[in-house]
Design goal:
alpha+beta, Butyryl-Coa Dehydrogenase, subunit A, domain 1, Butyryl-CoA Dehydrogenase, subunit A, domain 2, Butyryl-CoA Dehydrogenase, subunit A, domain 3, seven-stranded mixed β-sheet, two-stranded antiparallel ribbon, 11 strands, globular
């Protein structure tokens, strides 16, 4: 018995695009493509001409915050308070395009919107939301997110920063480390353990809004970084820092507060890391087609083609993962472990792609004339922040076995 295909391949089917081999663009809505293309144009015109200098000079151009706000990219997936209220997929596409420029720009937007603004939006009082969110959405006020400490990264439950009640105020003591936007932020979302001596059970973790300039609150930039150089990374210090009781985020208690924010930021990385990978793949592809060795372009060598094909495969697979997780998120069906799946896979593969692209460019791959070494260095940070690969592996391990391997 023979069968014939109901839809035989048409003779006029176009060849796949080297930069969108599976035609994933067709899976997007018109609005999603418009947002993506708008951010891509912004990155092309405003970021790429200067990013090598910003990276080399260890500078983030703070004035760009207003431009990002004008585009509606700050807190874009939140609703109300001047936020754009876009879909999760649209936000992911924006993260992809921003990180195709540089991880520092995606990190800035992620910290502003998915960490600082989301914390206020999801867990803050009406007054806190009205005070901060419209200004932050516009880029007129910047935020940072203080959770990690020098001795406690993957285990935030061990934090030593303490908030002690003193009359109608709280007094903060402690420090936070590796805080993006720390020294340029107008408000810090700081997570601290309530002093058990005040009668709080086991020192419950609570969030506080600490405005810049509050007495006892100081910042120090972390210098000599070789990764995320076009990004401000700081230490936050609190020494008898007095804040009013209404500075506390009233609607969440415990680590589920900061972890809910981290899950939002991790989702952006699922997409963003592929932007860095795409930029390196496209750079390597163009270089291989134009660089001649032994009387033929590098692209004509079998080993080079294998490298390029492997890059293309992983980028397309990663995009399908990102898009599927985004659709689940928009439908309210995304579990935190789905985000861990995307973060673990996509960052790991993106870093491998950048390293492989570097080998195609040879010595040119280590200069800032090409984006490869910059993205490669940046992804070394992305690999370990918002949850290391080991942490996401254990999250997924618990999801599939039902057994926790933490601790």
């Amino acid at each position: 018995m023979s069968t014939t295909a109901s839809h035989p391949q048409r003779a006029d089917v176009p060849a796949p695009s080297p930069t969108d081999f599976l035609g994933i663009d067709a899976l997007l809505t018109d609005d999603e493509r418009l947002i993506r293309d708008t951010v891509r144009t912004f990155v092309r015109d405003r970021v790429l001409p200067h990013i090598a200098d910003w990276f080399e000079d260890h500078t983030f151009p703070r004035a760009m915050a207003k431009e990002l706000g004008d585009l509606g990219l700050l807190g874009m997936h939140l609703h109300g308070y001047g936020c754009a209220g876009t879909s999760a997929v649209a936000y992911g596409l924006a993260c992809l395009e921003l990180e195709a420029g540089d991880s520092g720009f995606r990190s800035f937007v992620s910290v502003q919107g998915s960490l600082a603004m989301y914390a206020i939006w999801a867990h803050g009082s009406d007054e806190q939301k009205e005070t901060w969110l419209p200004r932050m959405a516009a880029g007129d006020a910047l935020g940072c997110f203080g959770l990690t400490e020098w001795d406690f990264g993957s285990d935030p439950g061990g934090m030593r920063t303490v908030a002690r009640r003193d009359g109608s105020d709280y007094v903060l003591n402690g420090s936070k480390a590796w805080i993006t936007n720390g020294s340029i932020a107008d408000v810090a979302v700081v997570w601290a353990r309530l002093d058990p001596q005040d009668g709080h059970r086991s020192g419950a973790v609570r969030g506080f809004l600490v405005p810049k300039g509050t007495k006892g609150f100081t910042t120090r930039n972390i210098e000599k970084k070789l990764s995320l150089r076009a990004s401000i990374t700081s230490e936050l210090s609190f020494e008898d820092c007095r804040i009013p009781a209404d500075a506390i985020l009233p609607n969440v208690s415990g680590l589920r507060g900061p972890l809910s924010c981290l899950n939002e930021a991790r989702y952006g990385i699922v997409w963003g890391s592929l932007g860095a990978a795409r930029a390196c793949y496209e750079s390597a592809l163009e270089y291989a087609k134009t660089r001649v060795q032994f009387d033929k372009p590098l692209a004509a060598f079998q080993l080079t083609q294998e490298k390029l094909v492997n890059m293309m495969l992983e980028i397309n697979k990663g995009l399908l993962v990102a898009l599927h997780v985004g659709r689940l998120k928009d439908d309210g069906r995304a579990h935190a472990s789905h985000v861990s799946f995307g973060k673990l896979n996509n960052v790991r593969e993106a870093l491998a792609i950048c390293r492989e692209a570097r080998t195609i460019l040879g010595a040119s791959g280590i200069t800032l004339e090409y984006p490869v070494i910059r993205h490669m260095n940046n992804l070394e940070s992305v690999l370990t922040y918002e949850g290391t690969s080991e942490i996401h592996t254990l999250i997924l391990g618990q999801a599939i076995t039902g057994e926790s391997a933490f601790g």
